[in-house]
Amino acid sequence: MSNTEDEQKGKERRYYIPIDGKFYETNEIVYKTYYSMGRRERYLEERDIKEGVKTFTDLDIGTYKPEEMISDKTVDIEEEITNKIMIEAVLEAITNLDEEEKWLIQELFFYGKSEREVAKDIRISKTSLHHKKLKVISKIKKQIKM
């Protein structure tokens, strides 16, 4: 081995990170963490660009109008309105049911109980309960003219 190789083995590697335009000596762990954070930040920026994510700094340069930035292109407004109207119609139709039918709908659809659980609660067969449920749903459909 030459003298320079012996000298390099004897010396410990020094690590520096730039802060405010100056380089500061640090240990290996801080050095690796610092540079891995920078890579993670670049990855997130690249992903945002790829997915079309806009930032508030885009407003400063006048690239986008604020309403373009906050509007959700994936939401179909017509579908949303139709769903809300249908929900209102179904809820109105439920108010016209008798108490037993309301209770059945409430247990199955609002509380999320299974047909088996409800049938057990009122001590009837699951099949009988299923037929009652279909009858009530049919009554609701007639009321909202589906």
Describe this structure in words.
The protein folds into two domains: 3-70, no CATH class; 77-144, Up-down Bundle (Butyryl-CoA Dehydrogenase, subunit A, domain 3), CATH 1.20.140.160. Helix content is 68%, strand content 7%. The chain has eight helices and two strands, in the order H-E-E-H-H-H-H-H-H-H. It has helices spanning 3-10, 28-51, 57-60, 66-70, 77-95, 99-110, 115-122, 126-144; strands at 15-19, 22-26. The chain has a two-stranded antiparallel ribbon with strand order 1-2. The chain is elongated, with a radius of gyration of 33 Å.
Number of DSSP helical runs: 8
Give the terminus-to-terminus CA distance.
90 Å
How many extended strands?
2
Instruction: Count up the domains.
Output: 2
Overall shape: it is elongated
Query: For the report, how would you describe the main beta sheet?
Result: 2 strands, antiparallel
Give the fraction of residues assigned to helices: 55-70%
The strand line-up of the biggest sheet is: 1-2
- Average pLDDT level: 83
State the low-pLDDT regions, or none: none
What is the CA-based Rg, rounded? Answer: 33 Å
Estimate what percentage of residues fall within beta strands.
Answer: 5-15%
Task: List SSEs in N-to-C order.
Answer: HEEHHHHHHH
Class from helix and strand fractions = mainly alpha
